[in-house]
Write a structure and sequence with these properties.
single chain, 170 residues, mainly alpha, two-stranded antiparallel sheet, 4% strand
Length: 170
Amino acid sequence: MPFKPVKTPCVGICSTGIGDSVCRGCKRFAHEVIDWNLYSNEQKWLIAQRLNSFLTQVVDNYLEVVDPQRLLLQIKHQQIRFREEQSPQCWAFELLRAGASQITDLEIYGLRLRPACIGMSLRDIREALDQDYYALSCAHYERYIEPGLAADLARKTSAVAVAKAAGSRE
């Protein structure tokens, strides 16, 4: 299955260098950040799909995309960096990241607040989106990735111990 080249999700705010297992900027796992250039395009696409899915889910909790075409036109008009292959919810996130404090009417962008969010400022919503997106990525890492890494480390440690024991018997 041919894939278009996948651009790095990096947003230039990496926290993996200070020990985070999940980047606070792009929400990739530390090993994905480190190995990104070694991955095949299919592997990169799978990571991009996971990130898109998580962000779409989070944005849907706060905003409704009423008119995706209007959102697309406004984002292009405002010259906001976004990835057209992503979901409209991801576009909405990029819109808020670029200018939550400057938006006065979401309807112009084809968006509507979910009832539970009415009364929240868009800056607060942007912060909540980012926190929830990070929390979802961390939860996925802790549930599905970390146990495998721990098992790999245990196998490697066991193999080293066996090798040392065999060497000390000689």
